[in-house]
Write a structure and sequence with these properties.
Elements (H helix, E strand, L loop, with lengths): L16 E5 L33 E7 L3 E8 L8 E5 L5 E5 L11 E6 L10 E5 L6 E10 L2 E9 L1 E2 L2 E2 L6 H13 L4 E5 L8 E2 L7 E2 L9 H7 L8 E6 L1 E2 L4 E2 L13 E4 L4 H11 L17
Parallel strand pairs: 2-8, 9-12, 9-15, 10-13, 14-16, 15-18
Antiparallel strand pairs: 1-3, 3-6, 4-7, 5-6, 7-8, 10-11, 17-18
Helix pairs in contact: 1-3
């Protein structure tokens, strides 16, 4: 049976498999998300290096082993597939064993051995045998773990405090670290260092009120300049916020209002991790047509 394909531009490829998380549900550092939006590879900025990989990306901490799942989109379930690494000294395939086919659940395991700049690796899915044709590629990025210290502030506004507690934040940061570990970052939170500032004169008791589109974040600025710890990421927890679950601005953009993160009680560990991402100057992801080259 013939398969008809219409190629729209030279940045599109057609593959019979895809890569996805090994599990569903809550974040897990051993089963991280797979980014399969598709990227313009080749020569890339900073320490990414030049890559010929065509496909998805994932990340893991040096020394960690993660699980990734192969989805058979257009290939028979009985066709034997094999997983190999282009550079086993950087990324090793731990399961299935070398020479053994991918199991029926489609899950394989890789270990990140070393964080090496400008030395990209390709995890290859091959058909028929470990030396067979490559029908799918995954580019894993290895990160040496770094620890970033956090100072939590449980804020009272006009006499109304956040419902969070120092002890309760221990599990919050555990979940945040479940999300961030594959990116090579661990947030260190010490409940004994938690501060409890009391602020007054705000528009609404218990609430940070802003008008972001109108450029009014005066209450945000007041909060993040209260009892600021110069040597830690300052996260201020408030009862409510009228526009957001959390708010921060990029840490390298000079502004008169200072640096810090405000989190409302409505914020989940996932949204807290999201704000930490912005604090480290990461923008929202972009979705663009395949005709538009996109550097990762």
């Amino acid at each position: 049976m013939a398969v008809r394909v219409r190629v729209r531009n030279n940045q599109q490829i057609i593959v019979p498999i895809r890569f996805t998380r090994a599990v569903t549900g809550a974040p897990s550092p051993t089963a991280p998300d797979v980014d399969d939006r598709g990227f313009n590879m080749g020569t890339r900025p900073a320490t990414w290096g030049s890559s010929t990989a065509r496909g998805a990306m994932c990340s893991l901490a040096a020394g960690d082993t993660i699980r990734v799942k192969v989805l058979r989109e257009d290939i028979d379930s009985g066709t034997p597939l094999f997983v190999t690494s282009s550079k086993p000294s950087i990324v090793a395939v731990r399961a299935p064993a070398h020479g053994s086919p991918l199991p029926g659940d489609g899950i394989f395991e890789i270990e990140g051995l070393v964080d090496r700049a400008n030395d990209p690796v390709i995890v290859e899915v091959r058909i028929g045998g470990p030396d067979g044709p490559v029908i799918g590629e995954l580019e894993p990025h290895i990160f040496q773990l770094r620890t970033l210290r956090v100072r939590a502030h449980l804020v009272s506004i006009n006499g109304v405090s956040t419902t969070r507690t120092a002890a309760g934040l221990v599990d919050t940061f555990r979940q945040i670290n479940e999300i961030w570990r594959p990116a090579g970052i661990v947030y260190e939170y010490d409940p004994a260092l938690t501060r409890t500032p009391a602020l007054n004169g705000f528009a609404v008791a218990g609430q940070m009120t802003t008008n972001i589109s109108g450029g009014n974040w005066n209450e945000f600025s007041t909060i993040i300049n209260t009892n600021h710890d110069t040597f830690r990421i300052n996260m201020y927890f408030v009862r409510d916020a009228n526009e957001v679950h959390g708010l921060t601005f990029g840490n390298t953009t000079a502004r008169p209002n200072g640096y810090g993160i405000v989190i409302a009680d409505s914020g989940t560990p996932n949204s807290n991790a999201h704000e930490l991402c912005h604090y480290l100057d990461n923008p929202h992801p972009s979705w663009e047509d395949a005709a538009q080259a996109r550097t990762p």
